[in-house]
Sequence to fold (701 residues):
Amino acid sequence: MATYDFVFEATGLQDWCTSGEGADAPMSMEALTAQASGEEQTTSIWNLPFPSMDRLNDACPAFPQSRNVTRGLEEGFLNVKDSMSFVLDPLTQPLSWLLEGALYGILNTPWWIVIPLLMLLVWFVSKSWQLLAFVAISLGGLAFIDYYSYAMQTLAIIFVCAVLCVLLGVPIGIAMSRSDKMRAGTIPILDMLQTLPPFVYLIPLIFLFSVTEPKLYGIAIILYAIVPVIRLTDLGIRMVDESVIEAAEAFGMTDRQKLYGVQIPLALPNIMAGVNQTIMMSLAMVVIASLVSAPGLGVLVLRGINNLELGVGLVSGLGIVLLAVMLDRTTKAALNRINASQKG
Amino acid sequence: MLKRSEKNTKIAIRNLYKIFGEDPQSVLPYVQDGMSKPDLLEHHQHVLGLNNINVDVKEGDITVMMGLSGSGKSTLIRHLNRLIEPTAGEVDLDGTNIVKLKEKELRRVRREEMSMVFQHFALLPHRTVLENAGMPMDVRGVPKAEFQDEANKWLDRVGLKGVGDQYPFQLSGGMQQRVGIARALCSNAPVMLMDEAFSALDPLIRTDMQDLLLELQEELKKTVVFISHDLDEALKLADHLVILKDGYVVQQGEPQEILIAPNDDYIVDFISDINRARVLRVRSVMKVTENIPENVAGEVDYDDNLESVIARSEGETGLTYVVTNDGKQVGVLTMTDLVKALVPTHASDDGLRAGAA
Fold:
């Protein structure tokens, strides 16, 4: 006898319970010990179990057990998986090409072209000698200890993913800023994407795509990193001074003129802060994504953990920190230049 | 100077109502039946913004709409270019009802017929002063190379020569508002709406800007609608003064008339602490006569203010002046009448009104 027999007795569902008798699933530990000792289990009120699925199943074999929930989810996902990947596979194929192209490009261009190009980019964005010197020393140091190609792979992945995040995120943010309904619908999704543990992204993606394909980690990184740029674009546009918008309307600007001439330029500091966050988050995810074959410094970290190679793990970790500081300072310098040009 | 009735009506506001709330149309009938603002708020949870406004804005005039905060003046001016949609009523610009315009047509009106100056300047912070001044032309799709000259011309005109390449945040408040005015002028629109344009400036600069506006107006003859909460400013600028309270028009007319014959305690309160000598003009207190009086002390102009006459008389109260307009005598002013006109309103209501009539 189980604790919750009375529920089914009271509701007259006993027939339904016994009809599916066949399912003789493994019993719980207590049930086994009880069976072995041949004693009837008596539960005091103090030990009253919560009427969970498993406990109800004790009383009524036809009632599903809790593992059926996860199994059902799994089966459901597997059922739709084929049709989903049929649609998603070609749709996301360009992402694979982009990532492969970027990785191929950065590894097959000689270092004496890549490093000066990066320096030029840093100079163009930040116009700061100190930062330029820092980047030069960091990249040189990484290359000197033969971590150059790993660092460049990580950089290439981040670059592709961050650009895509901005291309997708900014329009979504603009749409959110224009419609409260759209905003109300999007915010829960963003909240979920932001709080879901990064590892969890990988699980369904592994089922959908082949682990050997770059788009697998590409999608994981984009989903994880796109949130801040969307949020801050929305916020930035909503925070544009009401009176400036009014002036734009009073002089007869069209919606398009208002968007490109007023709202986006004035929201730019916020959008850039979002881009900065997005880059930082893709860097965090690219390390985790090494679990699903993302190349780069993350692979070394993983090797450090798996083989307990302390030195490799620490040095590659430090390399990631250097990359992070470089990316952060460069984007922040760009942000500061924008801020300086439009304060007040 | 043309009489008001001879001037062309540029903008006619007819039976304009604005109610803020969830379903303004449903409570409109109550308001039209005379429900007051507090009652509407208490019983129907709607806020009465404007209540049956009827104003004629004459071409080439400065029409000042004055009231305390919450009187609906900023709401009213935003109906003229439909930044706010009315609940009921018409706003006719040269005979076309703005309220009924389609979006495209409305945009044309905003670009070509009306310009606006804002209390907090509302310049685009990411564009240079020159680009800000040229914004109305930029909006119409004129490339910078072409609007540059026009924008520079107006910047020079408002006294901002050579700051075109700076950004708005580098300028002081007064200079920023000059840019705001240059921007409005650059649109070449015949109507200029000014929403508390000088309220955010400190008093000296405000006086400067008022003078600038009057000087520009002398030359350009725009139709200006000016919102203000400051009576001195309103009296200085207005050809036609509209006084608003709780969303309705308490009194409108020539400023002198309102000053001499206020028809509401609200206005009496308003005008009780102004410098009457500076605001009242000779024509409002003189006796209309062509007879030449005895002992004439001199001639004063019909449009002089009383302060200047007092200065001339050096405080002598027994003098009599001949009032002239274009060199012709139109009346006689005795200093005794002048002093009577200076008695504050709340002290001698009847006497003043009788004297003016």
Notes: The radius of gyration of chain A is 28 Å. Residues 28 and 79 of chain A are 30 Å apart (CA to CA). Chain A has a mean pLDDT of 87. Chain A has 15 helices and no strands.
